[in-house]
């Protein structure tokens, strides 16, 4: 397939380019585009053949449902059976923004979107390119992250090019994604809302608006094989780079000591070893490749850099990565969730 790369100004999207990409969506094609979380691969959510192209390009398992993206609050009504009490307030608090809300689906949503579930995931992104593109197209847009299935989500256009060039119609380059991790996913179909995936909107923020919020057990610990996850995507263990990832957790001095020892052990085995550090500790590690994800005190920066750095380790041909963990508060919950998955829950406590 001939893939066109389209550079668009994220502050002030050029109208002609937006119209061109929107037309590809109307014609049943695929367009990768920036959102405030990560890059998405979009197609007309109401066109089954178009949505199928997304699954094919990504190599995504058919049992993993997609998020439907909209550009205005009013569009929700026809996509869901009903909006539960309290959910309007949730929407006005965090939309447009990095929050995905799961509600009972209406019958205009094709089964391919929901993988046969009776619920649909909906998100109103805030990124100017995403919003104007969806608005101009006039259709709801199904969009998973624009990576090959299993790889870390793309935070810059080059990541999308690396994974999907030749497999999609257009890749828009709109600069780096701000949040760097996928949206928070919350299920509001039950009595008490359930957090299924932590992301840009934090658990603490959700609690402040909703009162009680349950955290799905799959968020921070490995699911045992006999449990059916509420969010199908959770059973896929990785957002993983090619390298093996091992998390080392505990008191700072001990972590540094343990990682340096592990680095030595693995280098002696002939492996190329990476360490994912923070700015404050980077100079204390002695590995083939040490990358800092940001300052300890700035978890937003760490979130924004995480997937980028995981891909960078791969480019450097690292075999194994030892990673420091982060605190669970705020966006830290999302960082830990993605790191744990990248590591397949291989966590060493020291
Ligand atoms: O930030 C984001 O959410 C990005 C950008 C492009 O918007 N999109 C994204 O989509 O991360 P994706 O497909 O990579 O992740 C969607 C997650 C999956 O874990 C999927 O299983 C879950 O949402 N999901 C979708 N529909 C669902 C449903 N009806 N019930 C439960 N989980 C659902
Ligand atoms: Mg994804």
Protein architecture, described:
By secondary structure, the chain is of the alpha/beta class. The chain folds into two domains: 4-219, DHBP synthase, CATH 3.90.870.10; 244-349, Threonylcarbamoyl-AMP synthase, C-terminal domain (Rossmann fold), CATH 3.40.50. It is built from eleven helices and 16 strands. The strands form two sheets. The chain has an eleven-stranded mixed beta sheet with strand order 1-8-2-3-7-4-6-5-9-10-11, with helices on both faces. The longest helix is centred in the last third of the chain and has 17 residues, at 252-268. It is globular. Residues 144-145, 153 line the site of magnesium ion.
Helix/strand-derived category reads: alpha/beta
Mean pLDDT: 95
Number of strands: 16
Bound molecules: threonylcarbamoyladenylate, magnesium ion
Q: H/E series, N to C?
A: EHEEHEHHEHEHEHEEEHEEHEEHEHE
Text of the CATH class of the largest domain: Alpha Beta
Count of helical regions: 11
**Into which percent range does the helicity of residues fall?**
25-40%
Calculate the terminal CA-CA distance, rounded to whole Å. Answer: 50 Å
What fraction strand? 15-25%
Which sequence of strands runs across the widest sheet? 1-8-2-3-7-4-6-5-9-10-11
CATH topology of the largest domain: DHBP synthase
What is Rg?
20 Å
Count of all domains: 2
Low-confidence sequence ranges: none
Principal-axes geometry comes out as globular
């Amino acid at each position: 397939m001939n893939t066109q790369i389209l550079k668009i100004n994220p502050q002030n999207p050029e109208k002609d380019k937006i119209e061109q990409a929107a037309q590809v969506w109307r014609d049943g094609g695929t367009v990768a585009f920036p959102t405030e979380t990560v890059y998405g691969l979009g197609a007309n959510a109401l066109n089954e053949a178009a949505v199928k192209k997304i699954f094919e390009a990504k190599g995504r398992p058919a049992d993993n449902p997609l998020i439907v993206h909209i550009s205005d609050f009013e569009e929700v009504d026809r996509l869901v059976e009903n909006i539960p009490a309290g959910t309007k307030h949730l929407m006005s608090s965090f939309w447009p923004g990095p929050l995905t809300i799961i509600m009972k689906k209406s019958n205009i949503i094709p089964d391919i979107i929901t993988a046969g579930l009776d619920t649909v995931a909906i998100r109103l992104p805030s990124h100017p390119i995403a919003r104007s593109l969806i608005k101009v197209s006039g259709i709801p847009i199904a969009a998973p992250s624009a990576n090959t299935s299993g790889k870390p989500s793309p935070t810059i256009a080059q990541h999308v090019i690396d994974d999907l060039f030749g497999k999609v119609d257009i890749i828009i380059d709109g600069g780096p994604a701000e949040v760097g991790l996928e949206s928070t996913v919350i299920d509001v179909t039950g009595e008490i809302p359930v957090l299924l995936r932590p992301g840009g909107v934090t658990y603490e923020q959700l609690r402040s608006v909703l009162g009680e919020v349950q955290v799905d057990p799959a968020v921070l610990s490995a699911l045992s094989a006999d449990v059916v996850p509420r969010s199908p995507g959770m059973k896929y263990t990785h957002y993983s780079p090619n390298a093996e990832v091992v998390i080392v957790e505990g008191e700072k001095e001990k972590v540094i000591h343990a990682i340096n020892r592990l680095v030595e052990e693995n280098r002696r085995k002939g492996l190329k070893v990476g360490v994912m550090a923070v700015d404050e500790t980077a100079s204390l590690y002695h590995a083939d490749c040490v990358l800092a994800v940001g300052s300890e005190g700035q978890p937003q920066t760490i979130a924004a850099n995480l997937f980028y750095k995981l891909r960078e380790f791969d480019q450097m041909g690292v075999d194994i990565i030892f990673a420091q963990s982060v605190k669970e508060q705020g966006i830290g919950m999302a960082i830990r969730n993605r790191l744990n998955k990248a590591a397949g829950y291989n966590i060493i406590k020291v």
